[in-house]
Amino acid sequence: MSIKNIRLEVMQLLEKKVDSFMNDFLIPVEKIWQPSDLLPDSENETFFEDVTELREIAKELPYDFWVVLVGDTITEEALPTYESWLTEVEGVDSEGRNGWSKWVKHWTGEENRHGDVLNKYLYLSGRVNMREIEMTTQHLINDGFDIGTGKDPYKNFVYTSFQELATYISHNRVSQIAKKFGDKKLSKMCKLIAGDEMRHHHAYGEFVNQIFKVDPSEMMLAFQYMMKQKIVMPAHFLRESGQKISSAFEHFSDSAQRIGVYTASDYVEILQKLVGKWEIDKINGLTDEAEKARDYLMKLPARMAKISERLVIPEVENVFKWVQPALVK
Ligand SMILES: [Fe+2]
Ligand SMILES: [Fe+2]
Prior knowledge:
mainly alpha
C-alpha cells in the first residue's frame, strides 16, 4: 500500500475518536469566553468613560509592545488561510461531512475570537493606524503561506502542535507585559487567548500521539522532516502596504525578541517539549531510517540551543506604518 493510502487509513481510524477529541479539547459555545466579555460594552451608558480609561492605560505601553500586538493580531486575522489549508489535508473532507472537517470548523470557530477581540482592542486603543493594519491583514490573506507540510496530516499535526504552543507562549508573555504596565484588562484578554492555544496544542499533540501508536516510523520521519526544514511562522509573508512580500516579518520578530515575547530559545524549548510529550525515546518497532530520525531528533534541541545562544538581536527599532512613533513611548 502506498504511503498516502496508509495515511488515509490512519486518518479514518482516528476519525472515530473525533467526538471525544472535541469534548476533551474544545469548549462549547455557550460556555467559552467571547470578545464582548472583555471589551467596553457599547450598550452601556458608561461606554465612553470605559473607552477613555482603556486609552489612558494604553498610553503606558512601549513601541515594541505595539508592534508585537499588531503582528499577533494580524497573524490571528489571517485565519481564512489556516482554515482552507486544514480542509485540504488528506483525510479531512473539504465538503465538511466527516469528523475531521467538524474538528476543523470548531477549531476555526474558537480561533476566530482571537483576531476579533484583539482587533477591537487595537481600534479602541488609539495608538495604532488601523488602516495600515487592515491593509497588512489583507495582503497576508492574499499571499497565503508556505509552511512545507503539503497535504500530509502527519506533517500538518507536527506543525500545529508546535505552532499552538508557540502562540501560547507569545500571548502569555504579552499578557505578562501588559500586567507589568498596569493594563489588567488587556492582560486578561491575552491570558484567555493563551489558554485556548494551550488546549489546541494538547489536541494536536494528542493526534500525533495516536498516530505514533499505529504508524510510528512514518510519524517519526514526518517529525524529522518538519524540524529539518524548520517551523516557519504562519505570518512569515508579513508585509506593510506598498512593500514586498515578507519584508516586515523579520522586523516584527526582532521586536518580539527584544521584549522577550518569542525568542530563539523558545523555539528550542518547544522542540524539547514535543520530544518529551511524545516520549520519542521510548518509541520502538521503528525501521532503520526512522531509528536514525529518532536519534537525530533526540540530539537536535541541544544542537539548536548552542546556535541560538550565538544569535544577536538588533537593538534599533524599525518604524512601522502600523504604529505611530509620535503617539507611543
Ligand atoms: Fe489563535
Ligand atoms: Fe491557535
